[in-house]
Amino acid sequence: MEYRNLTLLGTSHIAQQSIDAVKKAIENGKPDIIAIELDEKRLKTILSSKKSGRIRLRDIRKIGIKGYLFSLLGEWVERKLGEQVGVKPGTEMLTAVKLAKQQGKILALIDQPIEITLRRLNNAIGWKEKLQFGWDIIKNVFKREKVSFDLHTVPDEKIIKELTQRVKKDYPRVYHVLVEERNEYMVKKLVTIMREENEKKILAVIGAGHEKEMISMIKELLEVPAFSYSFSYEDE
To answer: Residue 36 forms beta bridges with which residues?
Structure first.
C-alpha cells in the first residue's frame, strides 16, 4: 500500500514470500528510510545468536508474570510455525535490517517497546482470557488441518480480516493491546517521519494484520495540522 512518500509492506513473519517481497521492495522502490515493526530489544533478539535481547526471568518485575509467560508462549509458537515452513521467525525483518545497513539506508524502529506491550497485556487481561488465548494458539499449531491458508505465503486480505475479527470477538482485550495500541504507536512514529522527511521515500515493513488499519489512520492524521508529539526514530 502506498500513500505520499510511504510504502507499507505487509508481511508474514515466517513466509519465504515475505523475504522475497522485502528484497524486491528495496531493490525496486529504492527507499531512503526503511522502517520495521521492531523495537530495540526485539531487534537485538533477531540479530543475536546468544538470545541477549530476549525477555528473561528477571524481567518479571517490569512486565508481570502474565506478560512474561505470554512472551514465552509467543516465542514458542513462532518457532514451531517456523519449523513447519523452514523459515526462522522474523527473517524478513532481519533481511530489511541487513539490506538497510549494506545500502546505507536510514533504519527506523517503529514498534512500541516490547516491555511496555507486555506490561500493558499483563495489566489489561485476566488469567482466564490469557490462558484460553494461549491454549487456542497451541491447539492450532499442532492441528495443521485447521490452518486455512498456506503458511509459506502472506495470507490474503479476506483471511486476515477473518482472523482479526475472530480474535477481536473472542479476545477483545488481547486484540486491543497487541493490535490497536501498537497500530496507534507505529502510525504516530511513521507520521512523524513522513512530516520530517517529506522529500525521502519510506518503506515500512509490518505484519500484514496491521497494514490496512494503519494506512487508514495515517491518511486521517495527515489531513489535520501537525500534532505536538515527536519521536526520535534513529537507533531507538
So the answer is: 109, 205
Phi, psi torsion values for 36, nearest 5 degrees: -130, 150
Distance set, CA 23 to CA 3, 9, 94 (Å)? 20, 11, 11
3-state secondary structure of 28: helix
**Which pLDDT tens digit goes with each residue over 66-124?**
555 556 555 644 554 444 445 577 889 999 999 999 999 999 999 999 888 888 877 77
CA atoms within 13 A on the CB side of 129: 16
**21/185 Cα distance (integer angstroms):** 24
How crowded is the C-beta side of 20, counted as CA atoms within 13 Å? Answer: 6
Would you state the pLDDT for residue 59?
56
Supply the pTM of this predicted model.
0.73
Strand 202-207, strand 33-36: pairing: parallel
Cβ atoms of 97 and 43 within 8 Å: the answer is: yes
Q: Are 182 and 111 in contact (CB under 8 A)?
A: yes
Domain boundaries, the chain: 2-221
The CA-based angle 229-232-5, given to 5 degrees, is 80
Residues contacting residue 236 through CB under 8 Å, at least 6 positions apart? 39, 40, 108, 109
Task: Please give the order of strands across the beta sheet that includes 2-3.
Answer: 2-3, 6-11, 202-207, 33-36, 106-109
Degrees to nearest 5, angle at CA 42 with 190 and 47: 110
